[in-house]
Amino acid sequence: MEWTGALYADTPTVEVETWIDAPPEKVWALVSDIEMMPTLSAELQSVEWLDGVTEPAVGHRFIGRSKHESLGEWQTTSYVVEYEPGRVFAWAVEDPDQPTAIWRFRLEPKDAGTQLSQWAQLGPGRSGLSFAIDRMPEKEQKIVYVRLKEFEQGMTQNLAGIKQRLEASE
């Protein structure tokens, strides 16, 4: 990822991808299982569905609990905003109309396996990062850049973990 000088209001994004030697239905089973994600993430500690649901569908909600050395501990409610079984799973954090972030997995069959990408967008809704920017507005671009790098590193680890689990079982 290159230095972009992005501002939070620019809703900057980052995306990583990998090819997995496993069919899309096996990859889908992992990426659509939100309770598996904390096993891959250093930041995301736990996830649970709300309202008595147990699987994703547009409009379903879940709580995520996270922990970060610089940002502390927090909990968010996420809303499934895109759900195409076997292809796309996306959720908006806190407010689906003004999210603090949006996350998306996308799958495509490729070369007898699966091309998997994970994408994330910061903002436009206010988040914990907004408070850091409020305290140090002159460092906004650096704060955004560092957070996007953290997202990129975490997503790279997520995809590597999914790839390793699936390819080890094939």
Automatic annotation (TrEMBL):
InterPro entries: Polyketide_cyclase/dehydratase, START-like_dom_sf. Gene3D superfamilies: 3.30.530.20. Signal peptide: none annotated. This is SRPBCC family protein. It comes from Nocardioides immobilis.
